[in-house]
């Protein structure tokens, strides 16, 4: 439910996605920002957030994540540094977990991506991790359990097992997963998994049924073939 905000707060509501500053305040000490820039306006919240980095668990994650970020580039040093990305996300996740000394990794996957889950489990196992993996349909509860009508199923008239991301999270937790990796959970099912997972969560594959799991493809072509992701006049074909 949308929160009611007064008008002056609305005017300060961050819209970083629309920031057109050449030198941005958030990345350059001499940079600037628009009137709604959170770097310029919300130092109190930035400081409050900083306090959260104080606990051991959070600071270890934060440090490992940022060190890993840097290590995903080659040629960062030398007389003419020219950082270039060299690591796929699957490898990035393995290295991140190793940095934190994690031994057991959870894989929560969609049954539509069994092969991807199998391959990623092999990747982890080849690097010495123990892997506990759970499919989204584990438990085989009918979709009717959560109020889905027959006409709302993928195949009306047939039995359909509901996805239970909460069960996935609980099963992974019971078996001591230290980091949970999502592979292709549906929109919303992933939201529930994030909420119920005790271990930190990262995503290897964001499901997109029509772009080969590359959701950004629809954004890159939103000016042409995927105009239908827009709404209103912008959605109309221009040619
Ligand atoms: S933090 Fe400020 S400068 Fe950075 S992108 Fe957002 S609005 Fe622009």
Structure description:
With 239 residues, the protein is of the alpha/beta class. Helices cover 34% and strands 11% of the residues. It has helices spanning 7-11, 38-41, 43-52, 56-71, 89-99, 114-126, 165-174, 189-196, 216-220, and strands at residues 73-74, 84-85, 104-109, 130-135, 179-183, 201-205. The strands form two sheets. It has a four-stranded parallel beta sheet with strand order 4-3-5-6, sandwiched between helices. A two-stranded antiparallel ribbon has the order 1-2. It starts with 6 loop residues before the first helix and ends in a 19-residue tail after the last helix. Iron/sulfur cluster binds next to helix 2.
Briefly summarize what is shown.
This protein is an alpha/beta fold. The chain has three domains: 37-87, no CATH class; 89-207, Rossmann fold (3-Layer(aba) Sandwich); 209-239, no CATH class. 34% of the residues lie in helices and 11% in strands.
In round numbers, the mean pLDDT is: 95
Which ranges are low-confidence, i.e. pLDDT below 50, for 5 or more consecutive residues?
Answer: none
Rg, Cα atoms, Å: 22 Å
- Order of SSEs, N→C? HHHHEEHEHEHEHEH
Distance between the termini: 38 Å
Relative helix content: 25-40%
- Number of separate domains: 3
In CATH terms, what is the architecture of the largest domain?
A: 3-Layer(aba) Sandwich
Describe the biggest sheet?
4 strands, parallel
What structural category arises from helix and sheet content?
A: alpha/beta
Q: What's the count of strands?
A: 6
Indicate the CATH topology of the largest domain: Rossmann fold
- How many helices does DSSP assign? 9
Q: Strand order of the main beta sheet, please?
A: 4-3-5-6
Strand portion: 5-15%
Cofactors and ligands: iron/sulfur cluster
Question: What is the 3D form?
Answer: globular
CATH class of the largest domain: Alpha Beta
């Amino acid at each position: 439910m949308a929160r009611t905000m007064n008008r002056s707060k609305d005017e300060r509501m961050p819209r970083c996605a629309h920031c057109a500053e050449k030198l941005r305040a958030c990345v350059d000490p001499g940079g600037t920002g628009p009137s709604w820039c959170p770097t310029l306006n919300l130092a109190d919240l930035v400081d409050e957030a900083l306090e959260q980095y104080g606990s051991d668990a959070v600071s270890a994650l934060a440090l490992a994540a940022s060190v890993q970020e840097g290590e995903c580039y080659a040629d960062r040093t030398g007389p003419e540094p020219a950082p270039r990305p060299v690591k796929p996300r699957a490898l990035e996740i393995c290295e991140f977990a190793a940095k934190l000394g994690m031994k057991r990794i959870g894989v929560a996957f969609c049954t539509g991506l069994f092969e991807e889950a199998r391959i990623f489990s092999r990747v982890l196992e080849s690097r010495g991790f123990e892997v506990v993996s759970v499919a989204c349909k584990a438990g085989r509860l009918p979709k009717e359990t959560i109020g889905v009508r027959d006409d709302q199923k993928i195949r009306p008239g047939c039995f359909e097992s509901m996805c239970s991301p909460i069960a996935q999270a609980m099963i992974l937790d019971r078996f001591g997963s230290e980091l949970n990796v999502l592979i292709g959970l549906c929109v919303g099912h992933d939201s529930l998994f994030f909420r119920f997972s005790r271990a930190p969560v990262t995503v290897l594959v964001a499901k997109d049924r029509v772009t080969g799991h590359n959701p950004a493809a629809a954004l890159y072509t939103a000016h042409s073939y995927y105009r239908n992701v827009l709404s209103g006049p912008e959605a109309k074909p221009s040619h």
